[in-house]
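[[Sequence with tokens]]
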Amino acid sequence: MWLKPEEILLKNAFKLWVTEKDNEYFVLQRRRGYGEGGGGLTGLLVGTLDTVLDSTSKVAPYRILHHTPDSQVYWSIACGVTKEEIIQHWDWLQQNIMRTLSVFDSSEDVTSFVQGKIRGLIAEEGKTCLVQEDDPEKFREAHLRFEKWFELPPEEKLVTYYSCSYWKGKVPCQGWLYLSTNFLCFYSYLLGAEVKLVISWDELWRLEKTSNVILTESIHVLAHGEDHYFSMLLHLNETFVIMEQLADYSIKRLFDKESFQREPALSDPLQITKRGIEANAKSEQFRTFFRLPKEENLLEVHESFLWVPFSHFNTLGKICLSENYLCFASQDGSQCHVIIPMREVVNVEKPDSSSRALTVCVRGKRALRFSEVRDYQRLANTIRSRCGISASPQHSASSESLINHFEDNPEDVTLMVGQKDSSKAVSTEALMTVFHPQDVENLDPKMLKEKMKEQSWNIHFSEYGRGTSMFFTRKTRDLIVRGVPEALRGELWLLFSGAVNDMATHPGYYTELVEQSLGTSTLATDEIERDLHRSLPEHPAFQSDTGISALRRVLTAYAYRNPKIGYCQAMNILTSVLLLYAKEEEAFWLLVAVCERMLPDYFNRRIIGALVDQAVFEDLIRENLPQLVEHMTDLSFFSSVSLSWFLTLFISVLPIESAVNVVDCFFYDGIKAILQLGLAVLDYNMEALISCHDDAEAVTILNKFFDSVTNKDSPLPPTVQQASVGNNDKASHISVDISELIREAYEKYGNIRLEEVESSRKRNKLYVIQTLEDTTKQNVIRVVSQDVRFSASQLDELYNLFKRQHFLSCYWTMNSPALLHHDPSLAYLEQYQLGFQQFSMLFSLLEPWAFCSIKSTLSLWVFRLIDENQDGLINFKEFCCALDTLYTGSFTNKLKFLFKLHLPPVQKSCGAALLSLSIKLTGRGKVDLQAYLKQWQNEILKKEETIKDLPRINQTQFIQFSKTLYNIFHGDPEEESLYRAVAHVTSLLLRMEEVGRRLQEPSSPPESKKPANTTAGEESSTEESSTTPESSDTSSSHNSQDLSETEWSFSFEQVLASLLNEPAIVSFFERPVDIQMKLGQAKVAQLKSKTNK
């Protein structure tokens, strides 16, 4: 590897280098401790220095220095891991540089030319390398060490590296932490003690920052049941963020099958960089805070002041710019932020150079003035270009007239919230306005209070703005806590969730979805139909066809839009409430915002998101309710009881008139609002929960509490309000007002920060997914153990190997067939499956004999034989049953397995078989549950196969069967005797067949043909004993042509009886296999087999 020329003053310091070659201008040196005679104390010292220190001269065991005869200064220009690599560089210098150097007169000119040439070579290499790092030279050196020490496949992309200490027991090892796309690696070498650690990100159970008495601050990693601690990191927070992002990236890509098409920095696992990872983390945080669509990425950040008209002062904060949004968030504790879609910007006024300020004019005759912006001119130009605005004064006049138009025609301002003309096929009114229209003349105290709330919000709108560019402040939250008026609920939900932006940028999208999904029949639509009448059945809106039809359309359209989620229980309850206060199209976009942004991974078969938030909730209980924790050490009870709280946002446990207040807070503060309320509920019932004796009593206490929650300010009539389950017992329980409960939740637990919640989500997601994966593994092992003779520990290791092989096919590509067909919603056995290539590599590591090479035709036949459902994929049970037969089966069963390999349809031409496999893999579509049920029924009814059920084997198949036996025996210590035994059995079977045919035929065939047939069989067996599988392919076709004149076949009983008479063959197949050794060897070689592929 060429290096940026670096001056070395003492080339022989400490005598660490030995000169191998030299000439007038260059010296090739070898590091002591490497190569020939590299042992002893020198080797230990040099190895330790190479690991601990970070210097160019200590990167690789070979280097090339440049010098001139009249100078004592040497320059390092190349290094190499192997002698072959450094010799290539040396030869290139000899052929291309040495002749040129004689032209120069002075040493300075020689050195200047060499340095320029080397820099040119490095620059040329950099053009083909997409790695963009802060210090390319050091990064290339680190990548060299990474490849040398860990021997991972060349596709593996190093992201970054750090110097740190790894605690092995109570002893710290100083070394280097390497973070790559798929692996966390550590290497240390101190005085002969080498420490090497390689952990794949998909194996992590825990990743967190910790501190204790010994380690002030460290990063804790839990994998394979072992704890690993990394400390003494110079940039611990940066390191942790990168590790967190890489682990999250691996989980999303391998378990969630996310393709990152909208995130170019992550779309190719071969091109992941530290810069891309950090940018993605910031964009993720940016989108979460401002509730922006997933397509948005954070492009620029500018520190500035924003003039806040309602407070009459400038607030310090940051301008965040994405492709389609200009956002501002304060940093002075005022909790003020504003979101301006670029589509709303009508002008950017000429910047003020004196105060470095610019003014952004938006629809509705409003303007935002940003001052003290360092790069204000460029920011103004960027905003103009993204909005398509020209800087000409003519445009300013037209924009002013546009503002005046909106001022004169306020009804047109509704365009800014994306309310387009909808199709007549969908409902254009919120169900609450249809089934409970407000009576303007009603002077009921509750209605008066409702009017006062509306007035408060109108005053707020006049001060802070209304619509997409409204200021969000503490006052906004205070109004939310007090309750949103019925008439404004739908509008505010759209605004706070960000759904208003989705709707504005996708006009007509929902109508198209409804038309496309109309009449489709899927598993999701069947489940939707089943649950339609279970959605708020007490509410009049869902006792009529109007409400039911709207609910059907929204749920079906979403299932059509996002088949990955489809439909999940609890979505019907949530959507019902959304339809009460929002128009049908608005309800659809609200559902999109909830399922895809605000509650990620909630609505799928494994409800991972809800389980993760329950784990976050447990952490918050430990932190905020220590008294409850002391009494109830097992907090899993709260996980089970709170599942419906998270899945339905308390809608399923609270009366509808109270639950909507919770939904108000959720759309403003996200999951933080639900966590706060959950803590407040437990705190309110603390004494009762502490005094209860069992879980059932605790559940009863909580149910009675929820039944007693009321909304004293709700203007809804009794016919609309939801009847509580425990109305009869309400007299014995003091009623609690929902507004008071929410206010108490904000007062006591409002200090929970959204950033902490998101960090806790990532930390707990690893544990939740690995727990689910472990449950899957235990279920699979329990099922498979009934059909095989492997021990539980052996099955555990086999499963880990099988799963790792599945992931090895996914690590370096986004389009792996195994990854595309991985579906966690399938039955346990079908979740991880291997295609032919993956199976072939794993089987070659585990098969008991040496016959099955990766590209072997036999490997394909084994695959086709055990692929019972012929879908081109092998599940774990099929794989284990085959191995069980080959490892622990009787002589008869092993022979039967080999015999069946040579029967049709298993034995096809290799090309045709592989083609059919690829067609099956690419053609596999949605899961056919009926086919699964039929397959399950067939397995139950399947009777035990006997040897009499096997068909006869013809002459071509028998010759191939003989070849297989020869290949199996090849390399065995008893190879010669085994070959003779096969030849003897082949000859005997052919003679037996000939005798049988003579007895059955009325007249004997010509004598000349009898010995010819026999001789052909004997010759073929003799030739096979001295040929390899490759060469025997040719002979088999020749033999089959000779024998085609006379058709003959054998039954399995004949073959078995003949082979049983050969003690050498019987002892070979009955020889026990060291299963544990095989598993250990496969575990070590699995990753290397990918490397050497």
